[in-house]
Structure formats: structure tokens, C-alpha cells
Amino acid sequence: MLCAFRYPTLGLLLGMLALGLSCRDRAAGPRVVLYCSVDQEFAEPVMAQFEKHSGIKVLARYDAEASKTVGLVQRIRAEAAAPAADVFWSSEVFHTIRLAREGLLAPYRDESGPGASETQNQSGPTMFTDPNGCWYGFALRARVIGYNTQRVTAAEAPKSLEETLDAKWKGRLVMAAPAAGTTGGDVASWFAHYGPERARQILTRLKSNGVRLVSGNSIAVRMVAFGQADLCFTDTDDIYAGQRNGWPVAMNFLDQGGDGVLTIPNTAALLRGGPNPENAKALMRFLLSPELERLLVQSDSHNSPLHPDVAREYPQYALLNPLRVDYGRVADSLPEAIQAGREVLE
Amino acid sequence: MSERTAPARLVTAASALLWLALILLPLGALTVDAAVSAPQNEVVQPVFVSLLRTCFLAGLIAAAAVVLGWLPGKLLGTAGAPHAVLLLLLLVPLVLPQYVLYYAWTLLLSPTTSLGRLLASRPDVARLVGVTTSTGVLIGWYWPLAALVLAQGWRSLDGRLWENAALEATGPQVLRHVTLPLLARTILLAFGVCLVLSLSEFATFHLAGVKTVGTELAVLYELTGAMAPVARAAWPVTVIALVAALVLTRASHRWTPATVTTRTARLGAQRWAWVVLILLLVVSWVVPVVLLVAHVTTWQSFRQFLTLHADDLAWSLLTAGVAAVVAYLLALGGLSPAEPGRPVRRALALIVGGTILLAMFLPAALPAVSLLKLSALGGLAPELRQSWLLVSAGQASRFAGLALILLLLTRYPDRERLAQMAAVDGATPWNAWWHVHLPRTWPVLVGTFLLVTMFSFTELAATMVLLPAGLPNFAQRLLNQMHYARDQQVIASCLVLVLLFVLLAAATVTLLRLASLRRWMPVLLLTVLPVTGCGRAEGAGTPEVVESFGRTGAGPGEFLYPRGIDLDPDGSVLVVDKSGRIQRLTGAGKCLGTIRLPQSEAGQPTGMSVHPDGRLFVADTHYHRVAIFARDGTSLGSFGQYGQEDGCFIFPTDVAFAPDGRVFVSEYGGNDRISVFTSAGGFLFSFGTPGAGTGQLSRPAALCLDVARGRLYVADACNHRVAIYDLKGRLSGYFGAAGCGPGQLRYPYGLSLLRDGTIVVCEFGNNRIQLFSPEGKSLAVYGRAGRQLGELAYPWAVAVDAHRRAFVVDAGNNRIQVWQL
Questions:
Q1: Which residue in A21, A71, A124, B430 could disulfide with A67, CB within 3.0 to 4.6 Å?
Q2: If you count residue pairs, one on A and one on B, with CB atoms under 8 Å apart, how many are there?
Q3: How far is it, in rounded angstroms, from Cα B326 to Cα B391?
Q4: How many C-beta neighbours within 10 Å does residue B294 have?
């Protein structure tokens, strides 16, 4: 009689134990630990391809969408004494630069084959590559103004940062809090491009125009799509995601005073002292290859390619008027921008 | 009491270690870090700004949850039979995480729907969608919690007071002047629990774009990389959580066990409560699930999920399952020390319980961050720090409080009594739990385990902090899928979650149904202990079994827990059992006739004696009288009534006759005395008072007269001794003391006398018969615990004939064994 109630419980526990044992060989064999702030849905299939071709298991820690890149950056800092990760694949560049300046990234030079230097040279203009080789940029996104097509016509939709400050958009704009994600880099680029005084004025005018802060770019797009706001500042990939769902959203580039739109490259970097340095280099080679960039362009994210060959294949995703800004200066402005964002907007 | 067994010590030690490592140290480190490190106002400020909004929303959610949970809580607190079903129904809405329910509702409001387009055209209304939908979903998620707490209040309500008020006043008047004042503390408690949990709510508000303390704190650690600012920023929530934990801990130890009450168990009176309950379930759970199903446009996502993300499911289930086990161990630690009358243990129970609840009430990121830091400081191997075990630990520390509350809710009214019985029988606390309590509570325990597993499975705030590289996680992926607006993938994941719950719930219900077959469980339970290794008496001899008759049942010659026996001078055997009848049987067990007791609903007799003139005197225990029957079963009347006055009884247990015709009646229940009556039932005098001292009695269960020596033997059951009186009621001495060795006794329930003056004692607690000389020396011990012939299960009485044959009432085995002494 007693067996009737003992055995299900014991069975459940034994089942879980068996499950655990069946899963325990996940990390067996060659492996590399990746910290990745690129959206999990995009990165996972790419990593699956790498695993298939290289035979190296990728143990990935993806970002929590709420904190975006910053969460992983803090983790890297916290683990600096005994790094757990080998490679950092970031969806943006500014925090990567800061990590490089803090000495947490290792230079990467691909000396394994004849194609290696070509890969690095082809990764684009100088502004997208660290002179010391501590990080490499690829697969751009751009900052945009998303709008609800049912409530805002293409003609009246603002086409620059300055136009969003117009009083007619009062109470109709949302944006992610600048503390995390690409919004922080965007606001920092205002400081680098316009200067701190003008940037603070922009923030103040946004505040007086009733801008609402939310916890991420995708939330901002969702609010616009659901009619809770008319405009938002976000990234290209978030608008593409909304359009894929049939949401009434469209975008204009967030032009800064006619000088162009902030473009944000993905970055790949080796972490100094990572536990699997050789496998990490193999992963770096893969991340910086045209094949990977092609995959990202083809994905729902539709990044803009930097490799010339890939760019020629996908002219529809070319960013025609990128803002010529020193990413290093933007990275320098990041703390000031975040602080100002808190002081003025929250 | 018996010593604790090795498994019990192991569980206690594991529980204590886990509490130390996962609850106390992290909370302590958090406190120290927040107090010692330098403040960072720039971080604290924005969290503080969100506090007012959060308090307003949490207050609204908690108040609405209490209002909605009122009727279901009343139903659960006052209904009888469907208690387990009700509990299960109330737990159902809690299984799907709030953010999944929120996402399901937003599908209805999507801009691709008519309602969504309508809302998009009304921005003034649309602006409120996020906050109203998230708040509404959270109300729909929290009302069952409020109902669970309110049910405890209803249980402890004095039903008579409430019913009397209902007779004299209208419903609203009763509510205002009686119910609300009586339940005020419980209502506040329910409100407080919902308020505190809502204050640290993260994922739902995050998805809705509503900034609250929960959303701020969840990302604060990620942004600052330090624990102290997070802890400091959370101080208002921490203070409220601390107060709530203390109040709930104190209140929970006063919670009365679930009982079947009679005051509002009428279906008609509760029909509206059932209607409300069903409606709430439909709105809170059924509609969102239907919305998810209705929005499936392709099955490709399901195939994709199974192809790509099955390992998410497996790993998350493993992590959550282990978390549930650890949460249970932690919760057991919060329960086990709470023994009454031991102030140190009680204080310890309050501390353990309080900290466990505090860890649950705090924003989840806080204990998780602290755990992470401690694991680094403690020199934990990198393999462990980067393993799934840390995630399990974080989830367990978060939900141990939930397990604790549910374990407290599953207590049942007979628990203490059964525990005492088991202890007397030699069972260790571990044995008592395993063999007695677990069989009664396992369905809810399993249900709670599944609930904690599901909670851990979908937990986000702590998991986000602790998740190591390379460990797939279902909840994090689900949240990210929501962010990426991949509706079909989200729906696939959500429906897999629903399916998982349905499968687990189906397993639980199947087990519950198995349990419902055991309606004779109380009887059967009492047979368990002797069989399954509880303490056994020492030095027991094997009796010569002459005969054994009877089996379980209500037919002729069958018994339902027999408890009283006597032999008629004509050689027939009279046996009374819990079927409310007295059977007259031959010495071989053939039924000769039945005397049906006029009343037996309140309880059945425990003792009876045949008068030398053939009349049968029955100690009609639960009707507070001695009933008299003729040999043919005709009722000849009764004497005695309920009361403490002379000639009254509380619970009479046995009857004995003096040669001069006087009648001795033993009783317990507060009187615990022997009363002496004339043969016509007139009261003469009484002796004995309740207690354990000399001249005092504690449940005198049986009487036996030795005419030759002028002695009255009294089985002083709960004092584990036999008292010797003369026939004037003067105490002559005792024999026996608590224990299981020869000469010792455990709950002597039956007495009989051999012709040579040897006293035959039936030991309920030691499952044996022991013979004593008139001088009180143990002469022999027969029998032991078990089901075989010569073994006994809770023997209640014994009668011996002139041939030294003992008729032993083997109650737990529903039979009479005849042993040659």
C-alpha cells in the first residue's frame, strides 16, 4: 500500500537524476565560453553552424534583454581576476571600447592562415576596428525613429532628432532608459557630436516634450505598435521584428542635425586570460568571417554588412549616411550621458 | 521519547546546512554589505522615485486580490469534503507565470486585431493599456494566494458565534460587525503577502513598460555590478518584506489545521462562492490559455521548439526539480523545530521561518546577488560556481517560503494525536513522518512540489543573475522571445509550458484518485506502524494461538476496529467495534446475534462488562452514559449524563462489578476518575483526579476486580501504569512504568484477571499482552507488533476464560485472537 505513494515521488526524483546524468556530457570535449549580447534568436543558429564546422562546443551566456550588453560587461568586470569567458560578442561597440581600455580584452591577430589578414582588412573602415586589435566591428545596425503608420503618415513622420523635439510630438514619444543598451550609446553620441551643452538641451527638451522611458528598445516598439505612443527611438532590428509580425510600424533614420545617423557595429573580442584561448581564436575567426555577416544580414535582424562582397550582395540594407563619429569619444561620453539621462529624464 | 534515527538526523542536518548556506548567510552578507559600503545616491534615487508608483500599484493589486479571494477563501476555509480539490483549483492559476498570462492578453490587444486597432485609434485609452493589463493580470494571479491565506482565517473563526450572528442580523450587518472584525488580522495578512510580492514584481511590469521597484532592481545589479547599491536601493521594500515575514511567521504558527467544519458546508449556501470561483478561474487562467491556442497560425514553431529547444526544457526542469527538493528541505527546517512548550526551539522556528519568508518576499535579485558573491568569497570551485546547481540554489531560496506556507496549510487535525501515538509506539519522528504523516499528506506534498517546480521553472529575476554560460534556460529564452516579438515562438513555448503543467497535474490528480480509494486509511494507518519497523517490545514470548476469528467488514463475524470485549458466563464472546454494534459470538467466532446501539454517530463504546446476572453494561463513551442491555439485546435503560458533577460522565471507558452489587465506572476527558454506583445506578462516591501524580489518573481505560484480594485494578493508560485500589477507593499502590521492557507498560488499555490472581494487561502501545503477579511482578510477555498470528496491531482489550485462554482484541487487524496463556 505504501508503495503507491512512495514510488511516484521516488520515481520523480530518480527521473530527474537520470535527466541530469543524461545531460551532464554537454560540456565534454573542446569548448569555448562565449558571452553574447546579440539577440539569442539570431546568435544561436550562427553558433550552431560554428559548432558543426569546428567541432568546438560553444557555452554561451546570452544577455538578459532587460539589461542588454551592460549586464554582461559587468559580469566580465566582476570575473576579471579569473575570467570564465573566452570571447565577447557584443551587439554594440561602446562598452567593448571601455573594456579594452580597462585592459580586459586581449589583442587578436589571426596568424593561422593566408585568409586571416584578409578577413581583418575586410572588416571595414578603420573606425570599425581597434588599432590595437582588441576588438573588431562588423554587421551594423542604425538608430531609427520608429512610428505607428496608422497614426503618423510617412510624410509627417520626423526624420531627425531635432524634428522629434517639436511640440506636436508632446507626450507621443517613448525611448529606452539610457542606462542600458544602444540607447545609452546613442545619447552618448549626442554628447560627442553636439557637445555636452547642446546634448543636455536636447534631453531637457525631450523631457519637456513628455518623453516616456521604458526598459528596452523592443518594449518601445511594442508600445508604438499598440498605440500607447506614436514615436520611439530604437534600432533597425526592432522595427524589422515588428514588421515581421504585421505590426503597423515603420522607421526613419535618427539623423543628427543632417550629419548622419549613428551606426552601431557588432563587436567581437578576445577576453584576456580566458580559459580556452585556442578555441577562442577559432571562434573569433568565424565571427569575423563574411559568412557570419551574411547570416546576420539574412536574418530577421537585417544588419548592414561591412565586408565589401557582402555589402554588394545586399544593397538594400546599406546605410547611406552614417554619422562620422569617433566611437572612442562616444565611449568616453557614456558615463556622462547615462548620468545626464538619469538626472534629466527620470 | 525515542531517539532520532539516522535518516531524521540527516534530513535535519541537511536542512540546517542549506538554511545556513542559502538563506542566513546571503541575507547576512547582504545586510552587512549594504550597511558598510559607501552609499551611492545616484543609484538609489531612481529606484526611490519608482517607489510611490509601485506602492500604489501593489496596493491596488493586493486589495483587489483580497476582495476577489474572499469567497474562494471562505469556501476553502469552511467546506468539508472537496478540500483537496479546492486547494488544487486555487493552485492552478499560480502555475503559469504572470508574464505568460500578460503576454496572452496582449495578443488580444495586438495591433493586428480589431480591438488593437480600435485602441490604437484612441491614444488616451491606449496609453493606459500597459499599466491596466499588467495590473489586471497580476490581480488575476494573486487572488488565489489571498484566498489561501483567508481560508486560514475562516478555519479559525468561531463558527457558533458567526452562526448566531447570522440568525439575528442581515448579511451586511454580520459582515460589518462580526466577520470583518474577526477576520481583520487575516485580511491584513493576505493583503500584506500580496502587497509584498507585488512590490518586487519584475517581468510583467517590465514587459508592460511600467517602471517599478521590481524592474529597477532587477537590472540595477547588472548596471552597477555591485550588491550594496542594490540592497540599499531596495530598503523600503526590504522593510515591508521584513514586517510581512515576521507577521506571517507568527501568524502561521497559530494557524489551525484544516478541519471539516459544519457551519457552512451546505452546497446551497456555497453555490455563489463556487460560481465566483469558477468565473475567476476562467478569467485568470482559461481565457489566456484559449487566447494562446487561438493565435497559433503555424505548427512549425512547435516542431522548431522540439528540435532546437528541448534541451532548454530538460535543463530547466532539472534545475527547477532540484530547486524544489532543496526548497522542501529548507521548509522542513522551518517546520521541524516548532514544538510546543520549548521556548528555545520555538524562537529558532520563528527565526528559521521568518528568514525563509523574508528571502521569498525580498526582490529576487537581492538574495541571488548575495549568493553569487558568497560563492566567490567562499572559495567555491569554479566548476560549481559556473554550474546549474547555483541556479537551483537561488530558485530554492526564493521559493522555500512558498513550500513552508503550503506545508503549514497541509497540516491536519489528528496530526498531533497520531504523532503522539506513533511516538509512544516507539516510532522516531522520522518514522512517524514517513509512515503516518506522509501517507495522509502526500497528495498535497506532491502538488506543492510540482508547484514549486513550476515556479522555479519560470523564475526569472534570480535566474538572470545566476545563470552560467552554456546552460540553456527556458524562462530566459521565453522572455527574450517576447522581446523579439516572435509571437509564434512565444505561443509555442507557452503552450509547451501549459502542456507540461497539464501532464504534471494529471500525474498529481491520478495520485490523488489513488489516495481517495483509501477511505479506511485511518484504520489502515494504525496497522502500518506495527508492520513497518517501529519500536518493538523487548523480551516478548511467542504465544500459543488457539484460535483467531474475524476480518475487516461490517457483516456477521466481521469487525471494523473492535475495541471492547467481555465473556458471558454462557461461554459466548461479546465484542463491540466501530460499526456501532455489539456482536455475540461463539468462542470460534460464529455470530450468534447483534445488539445495535441506539446512537453511535458521535462515537462508539470502548468498554463493556457482563454482569453476573447476565445483563450487559456498556460504557457508551461518546454519549456520556452507561447503557444496560438484557441478554437478548433489549435495552434496559442507562444512567449518567454529560458533566463533571457527581454521577455524571465525560467519556466513560469501562465498567466493573463488586460482589455486593456496586458498579464501578471509569472515565476520562477531564474527569479522569472512578465513580461508584449502586446496582440501580445511584451514585455513591468517586475517587481519583486528573493528573500524573499519586492518586491521580490519566485516561483510566479499563477496570478489573480481584474479589479474593478485595482489589480494584485500574489501567491508568496515559500514565503507563496500573493502579491498585481497595473496594472503598483507597489507593494501595501501582505497578508498571512507561517503557517497553518487561514490567514496563505503554498505554495499558485492557485488563483481565486469571483465577490465580494473575493480572493480564493488554498494552495498546507495546502491541502485547503482559502478565503480572498480584505483587506487580512481570511474569510473562506475549506477542509483538505485526499482522501474523501471535502478533498484534493496537490491541485494545483482553478477556480471559476459566481455561486461561485470552481473547485479545487485535483492533488494527480487525480480529480476535485466542491465546493460551
A1: A71
A2: 204
A3: 12
A4: 12
> Cβ contacts (< 8 Å) between B489 and chain A: which residues?
41
Q: A188: buried, middle or exposed (CB in 10 Å: 19+, 13-18, 0-12)?
A: buried
Per-residue cell: A315: 544593397
Residue B489 is predicted with a pLDDT of 86
Contact residues, chain B, for A13 at CB < 8 Å: 321, 325
- Provide the domain limits for residue B422: 6-28+39-279+296-519
C-alpha cell at position B22? 542559502
| Mean pLDDT value of segment A323-332 | 92
Residue B791 lies in a domain: no
Separation CA B574–CA B587 (nearest Å): 10
Residue A84 has its nearest CB partner, among B211, B382, B511, at B382
Chain-centre distance of CA B272, in angstroms? 28
Q: Do A227 and B129 touch (CB under 8 A)?
A: yes
Q: Which three cell numbers stand for residue B311?
A: 534541451
Domain count, chain B: 1
B771 forms beta bridges with B760, B780
Highest mean pLDDT among B443-457, B460-474, B634-648: B634-648
Q: Do A150 and B121 touch (CB under 8 A)?
A: yes
Chain A interface test: which of B301, B313, B318, B436 (most A C-beta within 10 Å): B318
* pLDDT per residue as tens digits for the range B330-385: 888 777 544 555 677 777 878 888 888 888 888 777 788 788 878 877 777 777 77
B673 φ, ψ (degrees, to nearest 5): -150, 175
Rounded mean pLDDT, B387-407: 87
The nearest alpha carbon in chain B to A339 belongs to B42
Q: Does B368 touch chain A (CB under 8 A)?
A: no
Indicate whether B671 belongs to any domain.
Answer: no
pLDDT tier, A181 (very low <50, low <70, confident <90, very high otherwise): confident
Residues 25-54 of B with CB under 8 A from A: 42, 45-46, 49
Question: How many Å lie between the alpha carbon of B376 and the closest alpha carbon of chain A?
Answer: 10
B483 touching chain A per CB within 8 A: yes
Q: Considering the domain boundaries, does residue B167 fall inside one?
A: yes
Contacts of B256 (CB under 8 A, 6+ apart): B152, B155, B156
Q: Does B215 touch chain A (CB under 8 A)?
A: yes
Contacts of residue B514 in chain A, CB cutoff 8 Å?
4-5
- Domains of chain A (ranges; CATH) run 29-140+264-316 (3.40.190.10), 141-262+330-345 (3.40.190.10)
- For the cut 70, the answer to whether the pLDDT of residue A111 exceeds it is no
Contacts of B383 in chain A (CB under 8 A): none
Q: 640-659 in B: which are within 8 Å (CB) of A?
A: none
Confirm if B390 and B13 have CB atoms less than 8 A apart: no
Judging contacts by C-beta atoms under 8 Å, the chain B residues touching residue A150 are: 111, 117, 120-121
Cα-Cα end-to-end distance for chain B? 31
Type and span of the H or E element at B117: helix B114-120
Rounded distance between C-alpha atoms, residue B69 and residue B88, angstroms: 15
DSSP 8-state code for residue B535: -
d(CA B440, nearest CA chain A) in Å = 10
- What CATH number is given to the structural domain containing B270? 1.10.3720.10
Query: How far from chain centre, in Å, is Cα A124?
Result: 18
Q: Determine the Cα–Cα distance for residues B309 and B493; give it in Å rounded to an integer.
A: 9
pLDDT at B79: 65
- Residue B473 is which amino acid? N
Q: What is the pLDDT of residues B221-270, one digit of tens each?
A: 656 666 677 777 777 778 888 888 888 777 766 665 544 343 444 444 57
Is residue B259 within 8 angstroms of chain A, CB to CB? no
Residues of chain B found within 8 Å of residue A226, distances taken between Cβ atoms: 106, 109-111, 116, 119-120, 126, 129-130
> Is B259 within the bounds of a domain?
yes
